[in-house]
Amino acid sequence: MSGRRQPVVLLVDDEAHVLSSLRRGLRRGKFTIRTAREGRGALEIMAAHSIDLVISDHRMPGMSGVELLTTIRTRWPQTERILLSGWTEEISPSELKAAGLFEVLSKPWDDGELRRAIRGALALAD
Amino acid sequence: MSRIKLSSSSSSTSDAIEGRPGCSPETVTVGNSETSGERSPAAEVLEPQAALGLIRIVVVVPGSDGGNGPPAMAVETTAALARLGDPVELLRAQTPSELRPFVEDPSIDLVLFDRLQVADSVGLLTEVGSHGPPSVVIVSGDSEQEALEAFRAGASDCIHFGPDYERVLPVVLLEQVRRWRATRQRLVSERRIRHLEDLYAAIVTEMPAGLVVLDPDGLIVAENSEFGRLFPPQSSSGFPPSEYLAARVPVTLAEAIERPPEESSRGKSTDPRAELVRVEEVDGEVFVYELRRRKLNDGDRRLLLISDLTQSEWLSDRLDTLQRDTRNIIENINSALLVVDPGGCISFANQAAGEILVGDGSADRGVDARSGVQSGSRALIGRQIADWFAVGEECSNPIEDCLVDGTRSRGAETLLQRADGKWIPIGLSCSPRRDGEGVSRGAVAIFQDLSEIKELELQVRQTEKMASIGQLAAGVAHEVNNPMGFIHANLHQMSEYLGDLNKYFGATELLAQAALEGDLEVIRAAAADVRVLAHEIDLDYVRSDFEKALLESTEGAERIRHIVKDLRDFSRPDLPARSPMDLNQALDSTANIVYTMMRHSVTLEKAYGELPKIDGYPMQLKQVFMNLLVNAYQAIESRGSDEPGVIRLETEQQGGELVVRIIDTGIGIEKSDLPHVFEPFFTTKPVGAGTGLGLSTSFKIVERHGGRFRVESEVGLGTTFEMRLPRVGPVVPIAPLDEASVR
User: Fold this and answer.
1) Do A40 and B642 touch (CB under 8 A)?
2) Using CA atoms, how far apart are residues B90 and B58, in angstroms rounded to an integer?
3) Which of B1, B240, B345, B348 gives 20 to 30 Å between its CA and that of B297?
4) Alpha-carbon distance B173 to B171, whole Å?
5) Looking at per-residue confidence, does A103 or B41 come out higher?
6) Distance, in angstroms, between B721 CA and closest chain A CA?
7) pLDDT reported for residue B73
8) Which residue would you say has higher pLDDT here, A61 or B271?
9) What is the pLDDT of residue B16?
10) What's the confidence (pLDDT) of residue B236?
11) How many CB atoms lie within 10 A of CB B94?
12) What pairs with residue B718 in β-bridges?
């Protein structure tokens, strides 16, 4: 991956306020941020752009976060994946494993922790 | 001479003559001579003889003129008859046809021929002599020829009409009468004996017992045919049937017969004179004989009566066993059993009934000390069943209903109250008892204590509720954590913004200071710093985004507040009694809470109609709504489509009923599954997704409110659950679920 290009992070959440607060928290980071409100839109962005990291909610209309991340893993294996969910107990371990996640974060999240996870994932992606 | 006393003397036709139909033409009663004062020597001879009573004598004499008067006899004869000492009845005959009835009459003692003057007297004599009473002929004093003729004709005796005539006649007559009477008596006795013999033979032959007479050596002297049938002679050698008893009957029986009666162990025969002897054959077959024995009058011979009771013993054994089994069953079933008479009075109660109705059944245990058989609960006998059913609207008494009009009940749930005040839920079945004519003889009731079952049911329903709540928790957690997430992040961000802004305000403060001091250079420098800082902190962005973050956070907080409020509304515990409630509000608060979890895949449509308040248990009904909503949501999820589904909530009042419909566009229910959806533990959900109790619990709750359910479904299109509750609820016989759980 080209070192000159700013990393691109895709945020997926059906909740606009979550997206805007994530943006806020990552405002000072050295990466480009894209957002999607649900799984299908996220996959369109994946197809149209080069994405280094996807951070997705789980409970969303249509496709669930784990489904989305599993799909991304299959089609874009070089893209790292972080799950950010308010309730992860309902996801079975096998599902989680299938999605091959870099990290699972739960809401409410801590911005510092989130930034550390992103940095870690992006270093891996490099 | 006054020695002759004819009671009717000369005026004989008046009252002394009795005309008897079919009998002699005339009778004359001759009075007792003893009434006369003087006794003749002949009378003294007769003295020691026992009195004979009335002597009936037929006199064969020629008829008088009219044929109706007393027999015309010689004066001497009349006098002689008067000396007989016993009353004499004289009857007259002069023709064979007149004489014949007397010959057949056993009360006639003698036929007296007053000389052979009647035509064919010899023929008459012959007729009498062959089989009738004795005949005595009075012959002329000098006629040996006449006497000879009389004897030849069959006369028993002849009397010469001579000087001793008056003395001889009574002696001869009495002798003949005595002899005849003795003969007659013997004949009667012989006949009677013959009759008794016939009877005896018939009895011995026909009696259903084997009869045998033994001599002192045990040799069979006589036996009847039944004995031969019971113990056939083993006469292969061709010996006569006289043989020893021991060779005929089984050894055990022979031993019992030889044992003195006192030593024999008396069986349980109802007849104390009889003994029961049990004989077990080599092949294992068992026979039971009843044995009666007695010594015959001669003291040496014994008479035995042996009956085969094997069949009746078997039946009575069987009856005993059945009775014991039945009693055992009745005593040992866990169900209580009561028999009450038409007046509602307990006539039988088993152990379980005692345990439920009295409490501790052990103290009351009626164990028969001898037989060891529990004989039910005696303390209850005679008590009124109504004592346990408080008269009130909360509990019915199915037994009373059964006694009043024969209503049967099956598994009716009701409450009874024990003397210690404890209420016990029971399930009771009751049937009337009737005799052959259909007249009521009371009722039989069988019931179970449902306390434990109710408790278990409660626990299961509680579990079901927890399961539903668990499903909710995921949705609720997510819905709370989402706003919490961005509020938390925003707060963090806003504090950063505040730090930047503080820096900026610090710079502007310096600028203001410089302006007041009026040093233009300093002012310019300060202003430049402010600009740099504004650029540094991206002031425009911070100002607008601060506000935006604040608004978003406020909105998020508001959302959390709503969720918490809905949860609180949803989970408010029920009051112990039913209370007025708003069905729309119960449905709405439930829908709101459930909606939080299905917001992403479901559009909720609400069409609430105007509803009056009803008396109910809000928490229970909310549980029903939650079950239905969760089902609807799962049905929509199961479609596997990204298109959002629709859940439509409708309420309306129709007459006296409040109608709630929950309509989904989920996968629908297979036609074959539809009839089972309200059955406990029926589920089509994957393992772990449901207990299969949600709808059955809902059904119970709605039933408890006097309502009913209807379900319509089409696979691929969706399902409609319709619930109808009466505006005025029913009397609820069972305490509310939630309250009963408190212990």
Assistant:
1) yes
2) 6
3) B240
4) 6
5) A103
6) 25
7) 67
8) A61
9) 34
10) 53
11) 21
12) B714
* Domain B207-316 identical in fold to domain B336-449: yes
DSSP assignments along B376-418, one per residue: EEGGGTT-BGGGGS-SSSS---HHHHHHHH---EEEEEEEEE-
**Token pair belonging to B598:** 């299905």
The pLDDT of residue B528: 93
In a mutational test of the B interface, the residue from A107, A113, A118 whose CB has the highest number of chain B CBs within 10 Å is A107
Select the CATH number that applies to the domain covering B27-189 from these four: 3.40.50.2300, 3.80.10.10, 3.20.20.70, 3.40.50.720: 3.40.50.2300
Q: DSSP 3-state assignment of B511?
A: helix
pLDDT digits (tens, 9 = 90+) for B691-716: 566 787 788 888 888 888 899 999 98
Q: Quick check: A111 and B484 CB within 8 A?
A: no
CA B21 to chain CA mean position, Å: 68
The architecture CATH gives domain B207-316: 2-Layer Sandwich (3.30)
pLDDT at B71: 62
Nearest-CA distance B624 → chain A (Å): 24
**Inter-chain touch B474–A90, beta carbons under 8 Å:** yes
Nearest CB neighbour to B485, from listed A60, A90, A107: A107
Contact with chain B for residue A24, Cβ under 8 A:
yes
More confident: A40 or B474: A40
* Rg from Cα positions in chain A: 13
**What residues contact B270, with CB distance under 8 A and at least 6 apart?**
none
* Spatial contact of B699 and B683, defined as CB atoms under 8 Å apart: no
- B371 phi, psi to nearest 5 deg: -85, -20
**Chain B residue closest in CA terms to A14:** B600
C-alpha distance from A40 to closest chain B C-alpha (Å): 10
Alpha helices in B659-707 (DSSP H): 694-704
A23–B contact, CB cutoff 8 A = no
- Below-70 pLDDT ranges, chain B: 1-50, 63-74, 235-242, 261-272, 360-377, 390-395, 461-475, 570-576, 680-693, 729-743
Place of tokens 């996959």: A43
Q: Is B38 on the interface with A (CB under 8 A)?
A: no
Inter-chain residue contact A85 with B600, CB threshold 8 Å? no
Q: Using a CB–CB cutoff of 8 Å, tell me whether A26 touches chain B.
A: no
Size of interface A-B (CB pairs under 8 A): 84
Q: Give the pLDDT mean for A38-48.
A: 94
A79: confidence class by pLDDT, cuts 50, 70, 90: very high
Give the number of other Cβ atoms within 10 Å of residue B186's Cβ.
10
C-alpha to C-alpha distances, B445 to B216, B336, B337, B409, B459, nearest whole angstrom: 64, 8, 6, 9, 29
Among B480, B481, B482, most A C-beta atoms within 10 A, so best to mutate, is B482
Residue ranges and CATH numbers for the domains of chain A are 8-125 (3.40.50.2300)
Q: Which of A45, A51, A60 is nearest to A13 (CA)?
A: A60
The whole-angstrom distance between B363's CA and the closest CA on chain A is 56
CATH 3.20.20.70 corresponds to the domain B336-449: no
* pTM, to two decimals: 0.44
Check CB contact of A10 with chain B, cutoff 8 Å.
no
Smallest CA–CA distance, residue A58 to chain B, in Å, is 9
Q: Closest to B549 (Cβ–Cβ): which among A24, A108, A109? A: A24
CB atoms within 10 A of CB B637: 16
Amino acid at B443: A
> Any chain A CB within 8 A of the CB of B492?
yes
Mean pLDDT of the A74-83 span: 94
How is domain B574-740 classified at the CATH fold level? Heat Shock Protein 90 (3.30.565)
B375 touches chain A (CB under 8 A): no
Interface membership of B556 toward A (CB under 8 Å): yes
Tell me the domain boundaries of chain B: 27-189, 207-316, 336-449, 451-571, 574-740
What average pLDDT does the segment A14-35 reach?
Answer: 90
Instruction: With beta carbons under 8 A apart, name residues in chain B contacting A68.
Output: none
